[in-house]
């Protein structure tokens, strides 16, 4: 029963990602995306990002908040997500 619940939750999340991909097509119309093919990988990417961010925040609780990098107007959280976004550029 727990395994079925997990599978249903994953299916619902993947359907949500499919809908999001459909609702937000690429800016470049020559870039074709099949949401049914990309959803499982996107799901894995989102789950991985969630785990990495959770681990980062847990690390900060155990040690201490990192200092802001001088000269940058971004918080460490913002820099975390900017660095993750670089993977997709």
UniProtKB/TrEMBL annotation:
Query: InterPro entries, alphabetically?
Result: MetalloPept_cat_dom_sf, Peptidase_M13, Peptidase_M13_C
In its UniProt record, which GO terms are filed under biological process? proteolysis
* Superkingdom assignment: Eukaryota
Q: Which Gene3D superfamilies match?
A: Collagenase (Catalytic Domain)
| MF GO annotations | metalloendopeptidase activity
List, for all copies, the residue spans of the domain called Peptidase M13 C-terminal: 11-88
Instruction: Identify this protein by name.
Output: Peptidase M13 C-terminal domain-containing protein
């Amino acid at each position: 029963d727990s395994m079925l619940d997990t599978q249903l939750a994953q299916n619902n999340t993947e359907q949500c990602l499919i809908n999001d991909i459909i609702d937000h097509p690429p800016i470049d119309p020559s870039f074709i995306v099949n949401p049914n093919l990309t959803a499982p990988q996107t799901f894995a990417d989102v789950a991985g990002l969630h785990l990495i961010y959770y681990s980062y925040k847990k690390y900060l609780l155990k040690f201490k908040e990192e200092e802001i990098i001088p000269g940058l107007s971004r918080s460490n959280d913002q820099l975390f997500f900017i660095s993750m976004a670089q993977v997709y550029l």
